[in-house]
Amino acid sequence: MKSSFSKLLVLAFMVAVLAACGSTNNGGTNSNASEGDKKVLKMATSADFPPFESRDTKGNFEGFDIDLANLIAEELGYELKIEDMKFDGLVGALQSNRVDMVLAGMSADEKRKKNVDFSTEYHRSGEMFITKPDSTIEGLESLKGKVVGVQLGTIQEEGADELSKEYGFEVKKVDNAGILIQEINSNRIDVAYMDKEVASGYMEAQGLIGFDDPTTSSPGMAIAFPKGSELVADVNGVLEELEASGKIQELRDKWELAE
Ligand code: ARG
């Protein structure tokens, strides 16, 4: 007797809960209409790549990509959530739909295009080798027998593997671009091979020297999305607007990107 009564109570409770859910859904406002109830746009980055993405002293994300992502989210009516991960894990995070987009100074190369979709390109850079100021390394020919550091999962990793065959150097791979600089300073690598824009910043900040890689022509940077994402068209539209209004140029100036 008692148990069937309590079963009834539970049932009545469940019906009430379901009814309550139903009524808020029906009567509720459209999800993206009101402030504080915005759709969330999940972005991932690898915040080791100034001036594109890094963290300030308080741990807040900052950089060109961060500002750009905020403009895009604002324009499309989303609340932006940023997640920091290893660069090497970004494509996987898109493939498993754990995030909606990636801004990480990521080059829109053909290999990645098999696994993710890209927006139109927003910046073009190149590659550089950087080293300590007292180093005698001054060109590809002087890399023989040296240790060249690269960030895992980058096009520079692939490029260095390729170049090492011809120029006879060893390639050391690390997770984080910032660690490459520590590795130079503590003599664990002779040279770091990285994006030219980012290398220039580190050279200035750390008193390093370097030279351009004359052999590369890397693709431009773009925003990456899961394959087939409907966001690509929307974001491309916003990029076009932001370019036309001069807002992207303002960001280039703010973060001192080379043209
Ligand atoms: N542009 C290079 C690439 O796509 C390096 C990007 C590294 N980005 C970063 N946030 N660490 O492979």
Number of helices: 9
Portion of residues in helices?
40-55%
Largest sheet: 5 strands, mixed
Structural class: alpha/beta
H and E order: HEEEHEHEHEEEHEHEHEEHH
Physical arrangement of strands within the biggest beta sheet: 9-8-10-7-11
**Span of the ends, CA to CA:** 81 Å
Bound molecules: arginine
Q: Compute the gyration radius: what is it?
A: 24 Å
How many domains make up the coordinates?
A: 2
Keywords: Lipoprotein, Palmitate, Signal
Domain Solute-binding protein family 3/N-terminal: 40-259
Domain Ionotropic glutamate receptor C-terminal: 40-259
InterPro entries: Iontro_rcpt_C, SBP_3_CS, Solute-binding_3/MltF_N
What do you see in this structure?
Residues 1-19 form the signal peptide. One of its GO terms (cellular component) is cell envelope. The protein has 259 residues and is α/β, with parallel strands linked by helices. The protein folds into two domains: 39-124 and 220-254, Periplasmic binding protein-like II (D-Maltodextrin-Binding Protein, domain 2); 127-212, D-Maltodextrin-Binding Protein, domain 2. Helices cover 40% and strands 19% of the residues. It has nine helices and twelve strands. The protein has helices spanning 2-27, 64-76, 90-95, 110-113, 155-167, 177-185, 196-206, 231-244, 247-254, and strands at residues 39-45, 54-55, 61-62, 78-84, 101-102, 116-118, 127-131, 147-151, 170-174, 191-195, 209-212, 224-226. The strands form four sheets. A five-stranded mixed beta sheet has the order 9-8-10-7-11, with helices on both faces. It has a three-stranded parallel beta sheet with strand order 4-1-5. A two-stranded antiparallel sheet has the order 2-3. It starts with a helix and ends in a 5-residue tail after the last helix. The chain binds arginine (ARG).
